[in-house]
Amino acid sequence: MIRLSPDTLDRLPADVGRPAYERAAIRTGVVHLGIGAFHRAHQADVFDRALEAGDPRWGILGVSLRSPGVRDQLAPQGGLYALSVRDGSEERVRIIGAVTGLEVGPEDPAALVERLAHPDVHLVTLTVTEKGYRLDPASGALLSEAPDVTADLADPDRPRTAPGVLAAGLRLRHQRGLPPLTVISCDNLPHNGARVRDATLAFARAADPATADWIEANCAFPQTMVDRIVPATTPADVDAMEARLGLRDEGMVKTEPFLQWVIEDRFAGARPDFEALGVRITASVAPWEDAKLRLLNGAHSALAYLGGLAGIAFVHQAVADPAWARYVTGLWDEAETTLTPPPELDVAAYRRDLFARFANASLNHRTHQIAMDGSQKLPQRLVATAAARVEQGLPLAHLALAIAGWMRWQGGQDDAGQSFGVDDPLAATTRRLLDAAGPDAEARARALLSLTAVFPPSLTADPAFRAPVIAAYRQLCHSGARAAVEALVTP
Ligand code: NAI
Ligand code: CS2
Fold it and tell me: Number of H helices and number of E strands within the chain?
Protein backbone atom coordinates (compact mmCIF):
# COMPACT_ATOMS: atom_id res chain seq x y z
CA MET A 1 0.00 0.00 0.00
CA ILE A 2 1.19 3.53 -0.80
CA ARG A 3 2.37 5.50 2.21
CA LEU A 4 1.19 8.98 3.23
CA SER A 5 4.08 11.35 2.41
CA PRO A 6 4.70 14.81 0.93
CA ASP A 7 4.67 13.16 -2.53
CA THR A 8 1.28 11.52 -2.06
CA LEU A 9 -0.62 14.38 -0.38
CA ASP A 10 -2.46 15.17 -3.62
CA ARG A 11 -4.06 11.70 -3.61
CA LEU A 12 -6.00 12.35 -0.41
CA PRO A 13 -9.81 12.56 -0.52
CA ALA A 14 -11.07 16.13 -0.82
CA ASP A 15 -12.60 16.21 2.67
CA VAL A 16 -9.26 15.53 4.41
CA GLY A 17 -7.57 18.73 5.59
CA ARG A 18 -3.88 19.19 4.70
CA PRO A 19 -1.14 21.77 5.25
CA ALA A 20 -1.98 24.90 3.29
CA TYR A 21 1.41 26.46 4.07
CA GLU A 22 4.77 26.02 2.34
CA ARG A 23 6.43 23.23 4.35
CA ALA A 24 9.86 23.96 2.89
CA ALA A 25 9.76 27.44 4.43
CA ILE A 26 9.14 26.25 8.01
CA ARG A 27 11.80 26.85 10.64
CA THR A 28 12.14 24.51 13.60
CA GLY A 29 11.33 26.67 16.61
CA VAL A 30 10.18 23.85 18.90
CA VAL A 31 12.05 20.82 20.20
CA HIS A 32 9.56 18.36 21.63
CA LEU A 33 10.81 15.65 24.00
CA GLY A 34 8.59 12.53 24.03
CA ILE A 35 6.76 12.47 20.71
CA GLY A 36 3.95 10.13 21.75
CA ALA A 37 0.27 10.23 20.83
CA PHE A 38 -0.62 13.17 23.07
CA HIS A 39 1.87 15.61 21.59
CA ARG A 40 0.75 14.76 18.07
CA ALA A 41 -2.91 15.45 18.95
CA HIS A 42 -2.45 18.47 21.24
CA GLN A 43 0.57 20.77 21.01
CA ALA A 44 1.31 19.81 17.37
CA ASP A 45 -2.29 20.72 16.46
CA VAL A 46 -1.69 24.18 17.96
CA PHE A 47 1.73 24.68 16.29
CA ASP A 48 0.27 23.46 12.99
CA ARG A 49 -2.41 26.14 13.22
CA ALA A 50 0.29 28.73 13.98
CA LEU A 51 1.96 27.72 10.70
CA GLU A 52 -1.42 27.92 8.92
CA ALA A 53 -1.84 31.41 10.32
CA GLY A 54 1.32 32.47 8.52
CA ASP A 55 4.02 32.31 11.22
CA PRO A 56 6.66 29.88 9.85
CA ARG A 57 8.76 29.74 13.06
CA TRP A 58 6.93 26.85 14.73
CA GLY A 59 8.01 23.64 13.09
CA ILE A 60 8.71 20.81 15.54
CA LEU A 61 11.70 18.54 15.99
CA GLY A 62 10.05 15.43 17.50
CA VAL A 63 12.36 13.58 19.88
CA SER A 64 11.98 10.22 21.53
CA LEU A 65 14.22 9.55 24.52
CA ARG A 66 13.42 5.86 24.45
CA SER A 67 12.28 3.73 21.52
CA PRO A 68 12.59 4.53 17.81
CA GLY A 69 8.93 3.55 17.17
CA VAL A 70 7.44 6.95 16.32
CA ARG A 71 10.52 8.03 14.33
CA ASP A 72 10.20 4.85 12.28
CA GLN A 73 6.51 5.57 11.68
CA LEU A 74 6.87 9.23 10.77
CA ALA A 75 10.27 9.60 9.06
CA PRO A 76 9.18 7.65 5.91
CA GLN A 77 6.14 9.96 5.83
CA GLY A 78 8.23 13.16 5.92
CA GLY A 79 6.76 13.82 9.39
CA LEU A 80 3.17 13.89 8.10
CA TYR A 81 0.37 12.11 9.95
CA ALA A 82 -3.41 12.19 10.22
CA LEU A 83 -5.19 13.68 13.21
CA SER A 84 -8.58 11.95 13.56
CA VAL A 85 -11.06 14.02 15.59
CA ARG A 86 -14.12 12.03 16.72
CA ASP A 87 -17.16 13.46 18.46
CA GLY A 88 -19.05 10.19 18.77
CA SER A 89 -20.97 10.49 15.53
CA GLU A 90 -18.53 11.72 12.92
CA GLU A 91 -14.81 11.86 12.24
CA ARG A 92 -12.88 14.84 10.87
CA VAL A 93 -9.40 14.15 9.53
CA ARG A 94 -6.60 16.65 9.06
CA ILE A 95 -3.02 16.00 8.03
CA ILE A 96 -0.58 17.71 10.38
CA GLY A 97 2.56 19.06 8.71
CA ALA A 98 4.30 20.72 11.66
CA VAL A 99 6.83 17.95 12.37
CA THR A 100 9.98 18.90 10.45
CA GLY A 101 12.34 16.28 11.85
CA LEU A 102 12.63 13.28 14.16
CA GLU A 103 15.41 12.16 16.49
CA VAL A 104 15.90 9.22 18.81
CA GLY A 105 17.95 10.56 21.74
CA PRO A 106 19.82 7.38 22.77
CA GLU A 107 21.04 6.80 19.19
CA ASP A 108 23.18 9.96 19.37
CA PRO A 109 22.77 11.96 22.61
CA ALA A 110 25.38 14.57 21.62
CA ALA A 111 23.56 15.29 18.33
CA LEU A 112 20.34 15.88 20.25
CA VAL A 113 22.08 18.35 22.59
CA GLU A 114 23.36 20.15 19.50
CA ARG A 115 19.82 20.43 18.13
CA LEU A 116 18.73 22.25 21.29
CA ALA A 117 21.50 24.77 20.69
CA HIS A 118 20.18 25.86 17.28
CA PRO A 119 19.42 29.60 17.07
CA ASP A 120 15.95 28.97 15.55
CA VAL A 121 14.81 27.06 18.66
CA HIS A 122 12.74 29.10 21.14
CA LEU A 123 10.61 26.52 22.91
CA VAL A 124 11.09 23.05 24.36
CA THR A 125 7.88 21.17 25.07
CA LEU A 126 7.76 17.84 26.91
CA THR A 127 5.39 14.88 27.21
CA VAL A 128 7.67 12.26 28.74
CA THR A 129 5.02 10.89 31.15
CA GLU A 130 5.09 11.61 34.87
CA LYS A 131 7.98 9.19 35.47
CA GLY A 132 10.18 10.84 32.81
CA TYR A 133 11.08 13.75 35.12
CA ARG A 134 12.97 11.40 37.44
CA LEU A 135 11.31 12.84 40.54
CA ASP A 136 9.74 11.17 43.56
CA PRO A 137 5.98 11.40 42.85
CA ALA A 138 4.93 12.48 46.36
CA SER A 139 7.74 14.89 47.28
CA GLY A 140 9.04 16.00 43.88
CA ALA A 141 12.66 15.31 44.99
CA LEU A 142 15.17 14.16 42.33
CA LEU A 143 15.62 10.36 42.22
CA SER A 144 19.35 10.82 42.68
CA GLU A 145 19.99 7.09 43.17
CA ALA A 146 18.26 5.98 39.95
CA PRO A 147 20.80 4.45 37.53
CA ASP A 148 19.85 6.68 34.57
CA VAL A 149 20.12 9.78 36.80
CA THR A 150 23.54 8.85 38.17
CA ALA A 151 24.70 8.04 34.61
CA ASP A 152 23.64 11.49 33.35
CA LEU A 153 25.25 13.21 36.31
CA ALA A 154 28.50 11.33 35.59
CA ASP A 155 28.46 11.94 31.80
CA PRO A 156 26.49 15.17 31.33
CA ASP A 157 27.38 15.67 27.64
CA ARG A 158 25.69 12.41 26.62
CA PRO A 159 22.41 12.61 28.54
CA ARG A 160 19.55 10.14 28.33
CA THR A 161 17.01 11.50 30.83
CA ALA A 162 14.73 14.42 29.97
CA PRO A 163 16.15 16.80 32.61
CA GLY A 164 19.70 15.71 31.68
CA VAL A 165 19.01 16.58 28.03
CA LEU A 166 17.55 19.97 28.99
CA ALA A 167 20.52 20.80 31.22
CA ALA A 168 23.04 19.83 28.51
CA GLY A 169 21.21 21.74 25.76
CA LEU A 170 20.92 24.87 27.87
CA ARG A 171 24.59 24.59 28.86
CA LEU A 172 25.60 24.58 25.20
CA ARG A 173 23.37 27.59 24.50
CA HIS A 174 24.93 29.44 27.41
CA GLN A 175 28.47 28.58 26.22
CA ARG A 176 27.65 29.82 22.73
CA GLY A 177 25.98 33.02 23.90
CA LEU A 178 22.60 32.00 22.44
CA PRO A 179 19.33 33.27 23.87
CA PRO A 180 17.63 31.27 26.66
CA LEU A 181 14.68 28.94 26.05
CA THR A 182 11.16 28.55 27.35
CA VAL A 183 10.59 25.00 28.60
CA ILE A 184 6.96 23.89 28.75
CA SER A 185 6.13 20.62 30.48
CA CYS A 186 2.88 19.26 29.03
CA ASP A 187 2.60 16.31 31.38
CA ASN A 188 -0.13 15.86 33.97
CA LEU A 189 2.35 16.58 36.70
CA PRO A 190 1.43 18.92 39.56
CA HIS A 191 3.30 22.26 39.37
CA ASN A 192 4.87 20.92 36.19
CA GLY A 193 6.81 24.13 35.47
CA ALA A 194 8.49 24.21 38.87
CA ARG A 195 9.16 20.48 38.78
CA VAL A 196 10.86 20.46 35.38
CA ARG A 197 12.82 23.56 36.39
CA ASP A 198 14.02 21.98 39.64
CA ALA A 199 15.00 18.75 37.89
CA THR A 200 16.87 20.63 35.15
CA LEU A 201 18.69 22.82 37.65
CA ALA A 202 19.75 19.79 39.68
CA PHE A 203 21.50 18.33 36.60
CA ALA A 204 22.87 21.69 35.47
CA ARG A 205 24.31 22.52 38.88
CA ALA A 206 26.13 19.18 39.07
CA ALA A 207 27.83 19.81 35.69
CA ASP A 208 28.49 23.53 35.85
CA PRO A 209 27.14 25.91 38.53
CA ALA A 210 27.56 28.99 36.27
CA THR A 211 25.15 27.48 33.74
CA ALA A 212 22.69 26.70 36.49
CA ASP A 213 22.78 30.36 37.55
CA TRP A 214 22.23 31.46 33.94
CA ILE A 215 19.27 29.07 33.56
CA GLU A 216 17.77 30.29 36.80
CA ALA A 217 18.08 33.92 35.78
CA ASN A 218 17.11 33.66 32.11
CA CYS A 219 15.16 30.55 31.10
CA ALA A 220 11.42 30.25 31.68
CA PHE A 221 9.55 27.20 32.91
CA PRO A 222 5.89 28.19 32.83
CA GLN A 223 3.32 26.04 34.56
CA THR A 224 0.73 24.54 32.22
CA MET A 225 -2.55 22.71 32.20
CA VAL A 226 -3.05 20.49 29.17
CA ASP A 227 -6.23 18.69 28.27
CA ARG A 228 -7.32 16.53 25.38
CA ILE A 229 -8.23 12.85 25.64
CA VAL A 230 -5.89 10.93 23.33
CA PRO A 231 -6.16 7.15 23.59
CA ALA A 232 -3.36 5.00 22.20
CA THR A 233 -3.71 4.24 18.49
CA THR A 234 -4.53 0.58 17.74
CA PRO A 235 -3.69 -1.49 14.63
CA ALA A 236 -7.44 -1.43 13.81
CA ASP A 237 -7.36 2.41 13.87
CA VAL A 238 -4.46 2.39 11.42
CA ASP A 239 -6.27 -0.01 9.08
CA ALA A 240 -9.47 2.05 9.23
CA MET A 241 -7.47 5.21 8.45
CA GLU A 242 -5.93 3.49 5.45
CA ALA A 243 -9.42 2.80 4.11
CA ARG A 244 -10.38 6.43 4.78
CA LEU A 245 -7.28 8.03 3.18
CA GLY A 246 -6.47 5.52 0.48
CA LEU A 247 -2.91 5.80 1.86
CA ARG A 248 -1.12 3.99 4.68
CA ASP A 249 -0.38 6.22 7.70
CA GLU A 250 1.52 4.45 10.48
CA GLY A 251 1.65 7.57 12.66
CA MET A 252 -2.00 8.60 12.92
CA VAL A 253 -3.56 9.63 16.23
CA LYS A 254 -7.18 9.81 17.35
CA THR A 255 -8.78 12.25 19.73
CA GLU A 256 -11.88 14.21 20.76
CA PRO A 257 -12.86 17.73 19.54
CA PHE A 258 -12.08 19.26 22.98
CA LEU A 259 -8.64 20.87 23.39
CA GLN A 260 -7.53 23.03 26.29
CA TRP A 261 -4.12 24.50 27.02
CA VAL A 262 -3.52 27.02 29.79
CA ILE A 263 0.02 28.40 30.06
CA GLU A 264 1.47 30.63 32.75
CA ASP A 265 2.51 34.00 31.32
CA ARG A 266 6.22 33.43 31.70
CA PHE A 267 8.30 33.24 28.52
CA ALA A 268 12.02 33.69 27.93
CA GLY A 269 11.71 34.83 24.32
CA ALA A 270 9.67 34.32 21.16
CA ARG A 271 6.43 32.36 21.22
CA PRO A 272 3.52 31.88 18.84
CA ASP A 273 0.49 34.12 19.15
CA PHE A 274 -0.98 31.55 21.51
CA GLU A 275 -4.05 33.61 22.37
CA ALA A 276 -5.10 33.72 18.71
CA LEU A 277 -4.81 29.93 18.63
CA GLY A 278 -7.21 29.43 21.55
CA VAL A 279 -4.53 28.90 24.21
CA ARG A 280 -5.18 30.72 27.49
CA ILE A 281 -2.20 32.68 28.85
CA THR A 282 -2.69 33.54 32.49
CA ALA A 283 -0.88 34.62 35.64
CA SER A 284 -2.02 31.62 37.67
CA VAL A 285 -2.39 28.09 36.32
CA ALA A 286 -2.62 26.16 39.60
CA PRO A 287 -6.41 26.47 40.05
CA TRP A 288 -6.95 25.21 36.47
CA GLU A 289 -4.54 22.39 37.05
CA ASP A 290 -6.12 21.28 40.33
CA ALA A 291 -9.58 21.23 38.76
CA LYS A 292 -8.40 19.17 35.81
CA LEU A 293 -6.26 16.74 37.79
CA ARG A 294 -8.83 16.16 40.52
CA LEU A 295 -11.98 16.01 38.35
CA LEU A 296 -10.92 14.59 35.00
CA ASN A 297 -7.84 12.61 35.93
CA GLY A 298 -9.15 11.58 39.36
CA ALA A 299 -12.26 10.05 37.79
CA HIS A 300 -10.20 8.54 34.97
CA SER A 301 -7.94 6.74 37.42
CA ALA A 302 -10.90 5.62 39.56
CA LEU A 303 -12.62 4.16 36.49
CA ALA A 304 -9.35 2.63 35.33
CA TYR A 305 -8.71 0.66 38.53
CA LEU A 306 -12.25 -0.14 39.63
CA GLY A 307 -13.56 -0.59 36.09
CA GLY A 308 -10.50 -2.59 35.08
CA LEU A 309 -10.93 -4.88 38.11
CA ALA A 310 -14.60 -5.34 37.18
CA GLY A 311 -13.61 -6.34 33.63
CA ILE A 312 -14.79 -3.11 31.95
CA ALA A 313 -12.59 -2.47 28.89
CA PHE A 314 -13.35 1.17 28.02
CA VAL A 315 -14.21 4.40 29.86
CA HIS A 316 -17.38 4.99 27.81
CA GLN A 317 -18.67 1.55 28.83
CA ALA A 318 -18.19 2.35 32.51
CA VAL A 319 -20.08 5.65 32.44
CA ALA A 320 -22.91 4.09 30.40
CA ASP A 321 -23.77 2.05 33.52
CA PRO A 322 -25.99 4.08 35.90
CA ALA A 323 -24.24 2.83 39.05
CA TRP A 324 -20.80 3.78 37.75
CA ALA A 325 -22.14 7.12 36.53
CA ARG A 326 -23.46 7.82 40.04
CA TYR A 327 -20.10 6.82 41.45
CA VAL A 328 -18.34 9.38 39.21
CA THR A 329 -20.82 12.04 40.36
CA GLY A 330 -20.11 11.17 44.00
CA LEU A 331 -16.36 11.31 43.40
CA TRP A 332 -16.67 14.74 41.79
CA ASP A 333 -18.87 15.97 44.66
CA GLU A 334 -16.06 15.04 47.04
CA ALA A 335 -13.32 16.57 44.84
CA GLU A 336 -15.22 19.77 44.18
CA THR A 337 -15.09 20.98 47.79
CA THR A 338 -11.28 20.88 47.62
CA LEU A 339 -11.01 23.24 44.62
CA THR A 340 -10.67 27.00 44.36
CA PRO A 341 -11.65 27.27 40.71
CA PRO A 342 -10.66 30.30 38.65
CA PRO A 343 -13.56 32.74 38.09
CA GLU A 344 -13.66 31.81 34.36
CA LEU A 345 -14.29 28.13 35.17
CA ASP A 346 -17.92 27.11 35.60
CA VAL A 347 -17.43 23.84 37.48
CA ALA A 348 -20.99 22.59 36.94
CA ALA A 349 -20.67 23.09 33.17
CA TYR A 350 -17.17 21.57 33.22
CA ARG A 351 -18.52 18.46 34.97
CA ARG A 352 -21.37 18.14 32.45
CA ASP A 353 -18.97 18.45 29.52
CA LEU A 354 -16.55 16.05 31.13
CA PHE A 355 -19.23 13.43 31.51
CA ALA A 356 -20.11 13.75 27.81
CA ARG A 357 -16.40 13.48 26.94
CA PHE A 358 -16.09 10.26 28.96
CA ALA A 359 -19.22 8.92 27.18
CA ASN A 360 -17.67 9.45 23.71
CA ALA A 361 -17.95 5.91 22.34
CA SER A 362 -15.76 6.55 19.31
CA LEU A 363 -12.55 6.87 21.33
CA ASN A 364 -12.32 3.40 22.92
CA HIS A 365 -10.13 4.68 25.76
CA ARG A 366 -8.90 1.57 27.54
CA THR A 367 -9.11 1.36 31.32
CA HIS A 368 -5.84 -0.62 31.26
CA GLN A 369 -4.08 2.25 29.44
CA ILE A 370 -5.13 4.81 32.03
CA ALA A 371 -4.18 2.40 34.85
CA MET A 372 -0.51 2.54 33.79
CA ASP A 373 2.01 4.24 36.09
CA GLY A 374 -0.52 4.62 38.91
CA SER A 375 2.16 5.27 41.54
CA GLN A 376 3.15 8.40 39.59
CA LYS A 377 -0.44 9.58 39.12
CA LEU A 378 -2.18 8.81 42.40
CA PRO A 379 -0.66 11.60 44.55
CA GLN A 380 -2.00 14.49 42.44
CA ARG A 381 -5.20 12.80 41.21
CA LEU A 382 -6.62 11.20 44.36
CA VAL A 383 -4.35 11.34 47.40
CA ALA A 384 -4.04 15.16 47.56
CA THR A 385 -7.80 15.41 47.13
CA ALA A 386 -8.35 12.94 49.97
CA ALA A 387 -5.89 14.88 52.15
CA ALA A 388 -7.83 18.08 51.51
CA ARG A 389 -11.10 16.33 52.46
CA VAL A 390 -9.52 15.11 55.70
CA GLU A 391 -8.38 18.64 56.45
CA GLN A 392 -11.93 19.87 55.82
CA GLY A 393 -13.30 17.20 58.17
CA LEU A 394 -15.41 15.79 55.32
CA PRO A 395 -16.07 12.16 54.38
CA LEU A 396 -14.20 10.59 51.46
CA ALA A 397 -15.85 7.25 50.71
CA HIS A 398 -15.64 7.61 46.91
CA LEU A 399 -12.01 8.74 46.99
CA ALA A 400 -11.15 5.96 49.43
CA LEU A 401 -12.67 3.36 47.10
CA ALA A 402 -10.67 4.71 44.15
CA ILE A 403 -7.43 4.63 46.16
CA ALA A 404 -8.22 1.12 47.36
CA GLY A 405 -8.86 0.25 43.70
CA TRP A 406 -5.27 1.20 42.87
CA MET A 407 -4.05 -0.87 45.83
CA ARG A 408 -6.03 -3.88 44.66
CA TRP A 409 -4.74 -3.33 41.11
CA GLN A 410 -1.18 -3.80 42.35
CA GLY A 411 -2.09 -7.45 42.99
CA GLY A 412 -2.18 -8.01 39.21
CA GLN A 413 -5.44 -9.96 39.15
CA ASP A 414 -8.94 -8.76 38.31
CA ASP A 415 -12.17 -9.79 40.01
CA ALA A 416 -12.67 -12.66 37.57
CA GLY A 417 -9.24 -14.03 38.51
CA GLN A 418 -7.60 -12.90 35.24
CA SER A 419 -3.95 -11.99 35.68
CA PHE A 420 -2.47 -8.87 34.07
CA GLY A 421 0.91 -7.16 34.15
CA VAL A 422 1.11 -4.16 36.49
CA ASP A 423 2.73 -1.49 34.30
CA ASP A 424 4.24 0.85 36.88
CA PRO A 425 7.81 1.88 37.77
CA LEU A 426 7.06 0.86 41.37
CA ALA A 427 5.44 -2.48 40.45
CA ALA A 428 8.34 -4.52 41.86
CA THR A 429 8.18 -2.57 45.13
CA THR A 430 4.43 -3.01 45.57
CA ARG A 431 4.79 -6.71 44.66
CA ARG A 432 7.40 -7.09 47.40
CA LEU A 433 5.23 -5.29 49.94
CA LEU A 434 2.21 -7.46 49.10
CA ASP A 435 4.19 -10.71 49.17
CA ALA A 436 5.66 -9.82 52.56
CA ALA A 437 2.20 -8.95 53.92
CA GLY A 438 0.69 -12.33 53.01
CA PRO A 439 -3.00 -13.01 52.27
CA ASP A 440 -4.70 -10.94 55.00
CA ALA A 441 -6.50 -7.96 53.43
CA GLU A 442 -5.80 -5.57 56.28
CA ALA A 443 -2.09 -6.46 56.34
CA ARG A 444 -1.89 -5.95 52.55
CA ALA A 445 -3.58 -2.57 52.77
CA ARG A 446 -1.30 -1.47 55.61
CA ALA A 447 1.76 -2.56 53.62
CA LEU A 448 0.79 -0.48 50.59
CA LEU A 449 -0.10 2.53 52.72
CA SER A 450 3.51 2.52 53.96
CA LEU A 451 4.71 3.50 50.47
CA THR A 452 5.86 7.07 51.08
CA ALA A 453 6.41 7.78 47.36
CA VAL A 454 2.61 7.68 47.06
CA PHE A 455 1.18 8.38 50.53
CA PRO A 456 2.52 11.08 52.88
CA PRO A 457 3.08 9.49 56.31
CA SER A 458 1.15 12.28 58.04
CA LEU A 459 -1.92 11.33 56.00
CA THR A 460 -1.69 7.57 56.47
CA ALA A 461 -1.33 8.11 60.23
CA ASP A 462 -4.71 9.86 60.27
CA PRO A 463 -7.62 7.48 60.96
CA ALA A 464 -9.94 9.74 58.92
CA PHE A 465 -7.95 8.62 55.85
CA ARG A 466 -6.62 5.26 56.89
CA ALA A 467 -9.87 3.69 58.13
CA PRO A 468 -12.03 4.26 55.02
CA VAL A 469 -9.20 3.22 52.68
CA ILE A 470 -8.57 -0.02 54.56
CA ALA A 471 -12.33 -0.71 54.76
CA ALA A 472 -12.70 -0.12 51.00
CA TYR A 473 -9.74 -2.40 50.27
CA ARG A 474 -11.25 -5.18 52.38
CA GLN A 475 -14.54 -4.78 50.59
CA LEU A 476 -12.86 -4.95 47.17
CA CYS A 477 -11.07 -8.16 48.18
CA HIS A 478 -14.29 -9.60 49.57
CA SER A 479 -16.92 -8.67 47.01
CA GLY A 480 -15.18 -7.15 43.97
CA ALA A 481 -15.27 -3.69 42.40
CA ARG A 482 -18.71 -3.81 40.82
CA ALA A 483 -20.41 -4.76 44.09
CA ALA A 484 -18.36 -2.16 46.00
CA VAL A 485 -19.38 0.60 43.59
CA GLU A 486 -23.03 -0.48 43.67
CA ALA A 487 -23.06 -0.65 47.48
CA LEU A 488 -21.63 2.86 47.70
CA VAL A 489 -24.08 4.50 45.31
CA THR A 490 -27.23 2.66 46.43
CA PRO A 491 -29.08 4.78 48.97
P1 NAI B 1 2.60 7.67 24.67
O2 NAI B 1 2.79 6.35 25.30
O3 NAI B 1 2.04 7.73 23.30
O4 NAI B 1 3.97 8.48 24.66
C5 NAI B 1 4.76 8.56 25.80
C6 NAI B 1 6.06 9.26 25.44
O7 NAI B 1 6.81 9.41 26.64
C8 NAI B 1 6.92 8.46 24.47
O9 NAI B 1 7.58 9.34 23.62
C10 NAI B 1 7.90 7.77 25.41
O11 NAI B 1 9.12 7.47 24.77
C12 NAI B 1 8.09 8.84 26.46
N13 NAI B 1 8.59 8.31 27.73
C14 NAI B 1 8.02 7.36 28.51
N15 NAI B 1 8.77 7.16 29.60
C16 NAI B 1 9.82 8.00 29.51
C17 NAI B 1 10.95 8.25 30.33
N18 NAI B 1 11.15 7.58 31.47
N19 NAI B 1 11.84 9.18 29.92
C20 NAI B 1 11.66 9.85 28.78
N21 NAI B 1 10.62 9.66 27.96
C22 NAI B 1 9.71 8.74 28.33
O23 NAI B 1 1.69 8.49 25.69
P24 NAI B 1 0.90 9.86 25.45
O25 NAI B 1 -0.52 9.57 25.20
O26 NAI B 1 1.64 10.66 24.46
O27 NAI B 1 0.99 10.53 26.88
C28 NAI B 1 2.21 11.03 27.37
C29 NAI B 1 1.92 11.96 28.53
O30 NAI B 1 1.20 13.08 28.07
C31 NAI B 1 1.05 11.39 29.65
O32 NAI B 1 1.81 10.64 30.55
C33 NAI B 1 0.49 12.64 30.27
O34 NAI B 1 1.38 13.16 31.24
C35 NAI B 1 0.39 13.60 29.11
N36 NAI B 1 -0.98 13.72 28.67
C37 NAI B 1 -1.58 12.72 27.93
C38 NAI B 1 -2.90 12.83 27.54
C39 NAI B 1 -3.61 11.72 26.82
O40 NAI B 1 -4.86 11.73 26.81
N41 NAI B 1 -2.93 10.79 26.19
C42 NAI B 1 -3.66 14.07 27.82
C43 NAI B 1 -2.98 15.02 28.69
C44 NAI B 1 -1.66 14.84 29.05
C1 CS2 C 1 -5.43 9.81 31.43
C2 CS2 C 1 -4.96 11.12 30.83
O3 CS2 C 1 -3.88 8.19 30.72
C4 CS2 C 1 -4.28 8.85 31.69
O5 CS2 C 1 -3.81 8.74 32.80
O6 CS2 C 1 -6.10 10.10 32.61
O7 CS2 C 1 -3.92 10.99 29.97
C8 CS2 C 1 -6.12 11.91 30.19
O9 CS2 C 1 -6.57 11.28 29.01
C10 CS2 C 1 -5.72 13.31 29.88
O11 CS2 C 1 -5.18 13.93 30.98
C12 CS2 C 1 -6.85 14.14 29.28
O13 CS2 C 1 -6.42 15.45 29.13
Answer: 23, 11
